[in-house]
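In the design runs reported in the main text, the only information available to the sequence generator was the tokenized backbone. The following block is the verbatim input for one such run; it is reproduced so that readers can re-run the procedure and compare outputs position by position.
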């Protein structure tokens, strides 16, 4: 804006400069004319004076036979030369060529002061040259005027040999006459100059307006463009340089508009990509200050790293030994930082520098990937493999040792052999169960498709409880079922819900001592069907409650194994519930009993009374 204002100011001066140039040119031209005329006027004046005398003098036909008196008489009677005798600004004088004595003079000054007059005429170069010359017909006709206190004058001097001696004729003409004419000329020229200057101002300002107007137009357009307004085109008024400038400017403006639209759309695209990107992006300038941070980066860093944290500070909280100065010096970024810990999360941090047109560091872009889940999964995978190997090794070891003992002779003792074979059978069952459970889990991991159908939970629970009753009876436990109200039909995979119920009720039987009580309660609440399996068994310590749904997690490994548990039952049950859009929660008191709540959702369309 400021620049444009100064441009406007200079434009104004362009207009005035043009006017001044035109005025100066006019003035110089008029001055040259004046000087030229001045010298020309004086020359014409003198030539006229000299030619007049020469023509008239020759008409007198003065020869060497003529004597002095005759000459004087002739001169006095000649009409033109009489002007020199009677005029106030012209005079004529006769001198003796040999003695330089003034013989006659019609000059008024001579009448008053003979010596003064003599001194005055002897300043004339023309007279002196004639007196000094030895030629009989010497003429002094130099154009220049003679300076004198009583007034400058021109002279025309002529030598004349007569019968009675040699004489010099001096015609004198006051310069004042010429000066009068000159001053008249000067006045005319001055008035002319004044008019010419006025015309120069007028023409100059009109002409310069034709130049400055399109420039002003361009300037206003440029001003609009700086404000982001491209909607105007400059009118092309002529085909000259200014016309071309206007055309070029219009082209430039349309190109600029196109480029700006392109850049804006690119920028928006980039911003959208950055906004919706899962990886965190933080851009820093060459000073290490944040210039951009995307929402993912803010989220990854729990919003703790505010926009103001510098690159160096950021690197230091990530425990990366790197500063913006070092990057600026080396300009090379090493391999990505694979596993950077920040609080309880793990990141993969990648840095990339960007440079300016001089190939100097302009900033650094930091890409942050959250690899916490990957890390967790990797850990779980390792633990899982270790757990599976461990779980399989124990029964295999006992099968192996019992088989060896049998082979070593125990086979002979039928009772012992039977006992051993029972153990081997149990262990094999356990391994089969384990493999079955593992297969179920791997099916879940592979993302199984549930075979959903209208299922009556009341029927399913009733059938399951009935089947489990026999197992409870062997431990002399009471297993009771209570269905509180009419339970809506839900969409469920019957086979899997059955497996879930067997796991939960089986656990209640397993972890409840003999003669214990187990109660299964079915009721519906809002949009849920709830199956509550409650026992008064050994209970689960509060510290373990959070972890019992993990694969292979068991509160008391030895007891669980003894009961034939694999540590996978609850994990499978929970996954089935979650797959149905439900959940399982557990409440328990150590030594008092455990209460498991299985929640399964009822969809509105399925709310149909049994
Ligand atoms: P397991 O095959 O060992 O039973 P689960 O995944 O079914 O494995 O159960 C995990 C652990 O949770 C069990 O080892 C047991 O310690 C505890 N648990 C599960 N149900 C009960 C319950 N009703 N009463 C007490 N402890 C239980």
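Verbatim output:
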């Amino acid at each position: 804006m400021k620049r444009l204002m100064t441009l406007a100011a200079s434009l104004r001066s362009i207009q005035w400069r043009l006017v001044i140039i035109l005025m100066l040119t006019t003035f110089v031209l008029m001055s040259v004319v004046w000087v030229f005329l001045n010298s020309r006027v004086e020359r014409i004046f003198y030539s006229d004076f000299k030619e007049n005398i020469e023509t008239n003098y020759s008409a007198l036909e003065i020869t060497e036979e003529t004597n002095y008196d005759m000459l004087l008489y002739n001169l006095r009677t000649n009409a033109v030369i009489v002007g020199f005798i009677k005029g106030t600004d012209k005079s004529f004088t006769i001198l003796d060529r040999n003695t330089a004595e003034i013989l006659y003079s019609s000059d008024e000054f001579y009448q008053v002061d003979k010596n003064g007059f003599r001194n005055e005429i002897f300043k004339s170069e023309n007279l002196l040259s004639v007196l000094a010359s030895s030629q009989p017909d010497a003429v002094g006709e130099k154009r220049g005027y003679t300076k004198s206190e009583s007034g400058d004058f021109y002279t025309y001097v002529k030598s004349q040999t007569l019968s009675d001696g040699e004489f010099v004729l001096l015609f004198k003409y006051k310069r004042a006459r010429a000066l009068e004419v000159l001053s008249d000329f000067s006045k005319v020229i001055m008035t002319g100059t004044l008019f010419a200057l006025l015309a120069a101002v007028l023409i100059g300002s009109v002409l310069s307006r034709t130049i400055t107007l399109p420039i002003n137009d361009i300037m206003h357009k440029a001003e609009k463009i700086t404000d982001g307004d491209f909607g105007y085109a400059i009118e092309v008024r002529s085909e000259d340089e200014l016309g071309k400038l206007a055309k070029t400017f219009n082209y430039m403006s349309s190109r600029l508009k196109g480029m700006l639209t392109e850049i804006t759309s690119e920028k928006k695209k980039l911003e959208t990509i950055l906004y919706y990107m899962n990886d965190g992006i933080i851009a820093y300038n060459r000073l290490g200050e944040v210039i951009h941070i995307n929402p993912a980066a803010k989220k990854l860093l729990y919003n703790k790293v505010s926009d103001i944290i510098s690159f160096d500070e950021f690197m230091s909280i990530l425990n990366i030994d790197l500063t913006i100065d070092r990057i600026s010096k080396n300009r090379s970024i090493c391999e990505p930082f694979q596993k950077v810990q920040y609080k309880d999360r793990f990141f993969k941090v990648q840095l990339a520098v960007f440079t300016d047109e001089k190939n100097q560091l302009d900033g650094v872009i930091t890409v942050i990937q959250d690899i916490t889940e990957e890390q967790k999964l990797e850990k779980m995978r390792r633990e899982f493999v270790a757990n599976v190997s461990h779980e399989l090794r124990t029964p295999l070891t006992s099968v192996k040792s019992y088989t060896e003992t049998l082979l070593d002779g125990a086979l002979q003792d039928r009772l012992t052999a039977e006992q051993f074979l029972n153990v081997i059978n149990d262990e094999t069952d356990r391994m089969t169960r384990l493999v079955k459970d593992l297969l179920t889990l791997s099916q879940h991991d592979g993302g199984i498709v549930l075979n959903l159908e209208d299922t009556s939970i009341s029927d399913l629970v009733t059938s399951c409880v009935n089947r489990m009753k026999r197992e409870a009876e062997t431990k002399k436990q009471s297993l009771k079922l209570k269905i509180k109200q009419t339970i809506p039909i839900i969409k469920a995979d019957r086979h899997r819900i059955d497996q879930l119920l067997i796991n939960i009720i089986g656990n209640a039987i397993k972890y409840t001592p003999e003669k214990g009580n187990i109660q299964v309660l079915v009721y519906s609440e809002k949009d849920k069907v709830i199956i509550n399996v409650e026992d008064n068994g050994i209970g689960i310590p509060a510290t373990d409650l959070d972890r019992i749904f993990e694969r292979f997690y068991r509160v008391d490994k030895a007891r669980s194994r003894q009961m034939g548990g694999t540590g996978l039952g609850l994990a499978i049950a929970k996954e089935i519930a979650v797959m149905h859009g439900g959940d399982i929660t557990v409440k328990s008191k150590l030594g008092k009993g455990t209460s498991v709540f299985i929640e399964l959702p009822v969809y509105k369309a399925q709310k149909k009374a049994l």
